[in-house]
Amino acid sequence: MKRDGLLLVVLAVVVLLVVVAGVIGWGAGHYTNRTKTVGSATATATVSVDPAVAAGAHDFVQFACAQCHGQDGRGGISPDVPSLSSAGKTLTVAQLTDIIDHGLGESANPTKPYMPVWGAVISRRQVSELVAYIRAGLPTVADATPVAVPQGQGDAVAGASLYVRYGCINCHGPNGLGGVPNPLSPDKTIPPLSGADFRHEFNTDEKITAVIRSGSVIGRAPIVSMPHWGGILSDAQLRALVAYLETLK
Ligand code: HEC
Ligand code: HEC
Q: The CATH number of the domain where 224 resides is what?
């Protein structure tokens, strides 16, 4: 009887020890597992994205490809602009390079967006980065996100961000100062959106809005023309852009 009681106590202690050891072991395993996950995720992000592909993702945002073709080229912005998700498989490097340099689609129809001509605006290196990014399937790349548009601070403030977000700045320069070469166009440069000549020709909000919405085709590639933003930019965004342009010199 006495021996049985002792055995019971010993057994209870052993069971308790096993449970305690189990809890500690689980906790340790759980903790190491979590640290391991974080470690390997960071390692994958830095190892698996090729630098040219990452640069292409940033170019895609900088040149506002994402504003027409959607975040990561997944479409959904306008029925007239295709998703690029399968373009990397169906189109060769040469075809993609040619489309980016020379544009695509019906540029003469002012009611529909077309693929702009970029050859004179985007560097050879950036074009090859964009092609690498599209061919890699347009993966999500850290920090390749368009500039945010401040809300509730008035049209001119929103417009200043839209000017960057929609890539107007790449063609018309910072502060609309112009100077971007367009060698085969009559003026040899893309026009400024500031200064006396601009104000004289575009002397009403309606005229400025009309040219942003419907674009202006000065010639075929390699001449760069003004893209059509109708169906891409909302009326409120157009109003904000016009308000911003009116703050310029
Ligand atoms: C103003 C809107 C707009 C912008 C900005 C724009 N695109 Fe496009 N893109 C289009 C439209 C519209 C088409 C379809 C043209 C057609 O087939 O008629 C197109 C077609 C393409 C195609 C061919 C897709 C296919 O499957 O045939 C590629 C590739 C492409 N764009 C890449 C780009 C890249 C890269 C950028 C940025 C440098 C860019 N686009 C910026 C409107 C835009
Ligand atoms: C791919 C280069 C490109 C981009 C991007 C671009 N533009 Fe233009 N834009 C032009 C060219 C080229 C002209 C000149 C067209 C002409 O002379 O008929 C022009 C003309 C204009 C004009 C009329 C000025 C003039 O003297 O003819 C306005 C206003 C304008 N753009 C605003 C914008 C805004 C706002 C954006 C951004 C939403 C933008 N542009 C994006 C190339 C571009």
A: 1.10.760.10
Ligand 1 midpoint to CA 122 (Å)? 14
Ligand 1: residues within 6 Å at CB? 63-65, 68-69, 80-82, 84, 87, 96, 99-100, 104-105, 113-116, 118, 130, 227, 232
Q: What is the pLDDT along the chain (249 residues), one digit of tens a residue?
A: 455 655 555 445 444 444 445 444 454 444 444 434 343 444 444 457 899 999 999 999 999 999 999 999 999 999 999 999 999 999 999 999 999 999 999 888 888 999 999 999 999 999 999 999 999 999 999 999 999 999 999 999 999 999 999 999 999 999 999 999 999 999 999 999 999 999 999 999 999 999 999 999 999 999 999 999 999 999 999 999 999 999 998
Ligand nearest to the CA of 63: 1
- Cβ distance 52 to 128 under 8 Å? yes
Domain count of the fold of the chain: 1
Residue 221 placed within a domain: yes
Residue 115's domain comprises 51-245
**Which residues, at least 6 apart from 52, have a Cβ–Cβ distance to it below 8 Å?**
128, 129, 132, 133
Give the whole-angstrom CA distance, residue 64 versus residue 59: 8
**Which residues, judged by CB distance below 6 Å to any ligand atom, belong to the binding site of ligand 2?**
116, 121, 166-168, 170-172, 182, 190-191, 193, 198, 202, 208, 211-212, 216, 218, 224-227, 229, 241
Is 65 domain-assigned?
A: yes
